[in-house]
Design goal:
11 strands; alpha+beta; 11% strand; PGBD; 356 residues; six-stranded antiparallel β-sheet; PiggyBac transposable element-derived protein domain-containing protein
Length: 356
């Protein structure tokens, strides 16, 4: 079903796989007649040549996280003030859906968009990389790696504390390994001129690289909340990195008016409890990024209050939808039903199956 616009994002805290519909089932779509659109287009046709560090690190034990939607931080208050109050969806009339559709005036988009930085025209790729991964991140990575080595292997005579410079070199080597892939990371230090990489050998020895791979850590395991306890975070091991890039991405790039949030499968073969296996997809194993599961009437109302219009497919079983949409009468192929509540429009369309 299609919904065009929508209240509290707090209603979705995470999901269980049992809640997910099979993709062959009737989808739903929610969308406000808006200029910002979310869709459920899937691009699972990602390159199979993508860097897969888990292949080189079989001991990876990344843990999982609650898939919570972030709270609105009020950045769109200025845009919200431009929406006439008469057009904002009234929470007191949320249950009334009209057959009479009305036009909606969308305020002009006037925000500055694009990259935000002071880098010169001759800046290198590494300069842009360091905009998003700041010096303090590499310092944190060195501290946590040294801490983990101390916690787990006090008697490891081959371990020496890592420095920030070594962490940077280690990350750079891993990026290069993703571009120039070999069947084993040890081959990069091979004396065979057709396999070995002299640049990597000149930066770090094979033994040192192996030790860093053994102990590399982003967060302190001892501060992790136990499973089945309030506050348990499946992504505790990488939470500091996620928190950092959430800020640096927003600091250095201002998105344009129209944005699309697509479903995708992130290729991953390591140990990770949220990893899924989908045999019918081009990328069969990895972390599924969902869209349709989270599209809902409350979410679109929340976005509207923050000055954001959007649309997307929605599950017909989602709360807040009119009965005519959740349980429509028999329709001929090509027919549709639309109902409007304030700025929110829900549509169900008959193809071979009902599409909502």
């Amino acid at each position: 079903m299609d919904i065009f616009l929508s209240s509290q994002s707090s209603q979705f805290s995470g999901f269980e796989l049992s809640d997910l519909e099979d993709e062959s089932e009737s989808p739903g779509s929610v969308s406000p007649p808006s200029s910002v659109r979310t869709s459920d287009l899937s691009f699972d046709e990602e390159s199979d040549g993508a860097s897969d560090l888990s292949d080189r690190n079989p001991d990876s034990d990344i843990e999982e996280d609650n898939d919570e939607l972030p709270d609105s931080d009020g950045e769109f208050d200025s845009q919200l003030s431009e929406i006439p109050s008469s057009q904002l969806t009234s929470t007191s009339d949320e249950d009334f859906w009209s057959e009479q559709l009305e036009d909606i005036d969308i305020p002009d988009f006037s925000e500055m968009t694009g990259p935000v930085h002071m880098l010169p025209l001759n800046a290198q790729a590494v300069d842009f990389f360091q905009l998003f991964f700041e010096e303090r991140f590499f310092q944190h990575l060195a501290e946590q790696t040294n801490l983990y080595a101390q916690q787990t292997s006090e008697n490891d005579q081959h371990w020496e504390e890592v420095t920030t410079a070594e962490i940077k070199a280690f990350i750079g080597i891993n990026i290069l390994m993703g571009v120039m892939q070999l069947s084993s990371y040890r081959l990069y230090w091979s004396s065979d001129p057709f396999l070995g990489n002299t640049g990597i050998r000149s930066v770090m020895t094979e033994n040192r690289f192996s030790k860093l791979y053994q102990y590399i850590h982003v967060n302190n395991n001892q501060t992790a909340v136990p499973r089945d306890s309030e506050g348990f975070d499946k992504l505790h091991k990488v939470r500091p990195m996620i928190n950092m890039v959430e800020h640096t991405f927003k600091d250095h790039y201002k998105p344009k008016q129209n944005q699309t949030v697509d479903e995708a499968m992130v290729k991953y073969k390591g140990r990770f409890s949220i990893k899924q296996y989908m045999p019918g997809k081009p990328i069969k194993r990895g972390m599924k990024v969902w869209m349709r599961y989270f599209t809902s009437v409350p979410l679109l109302r929340c976005l509207e209050r923050n000055g954001i219009y959007g649309c997307g497919t929605i599950k017909c079983t989602s709360i807040g939808l009119p009965d005519d949409v959740t349980d429509p009468p028999r329709m001929a192929r090509g027919e549709s039903i639309a109902r409007q509540n304030g700025n929110l429009v829900a549509t169900v369309w008959q193809d071979k199956k009902k599409v909502s």
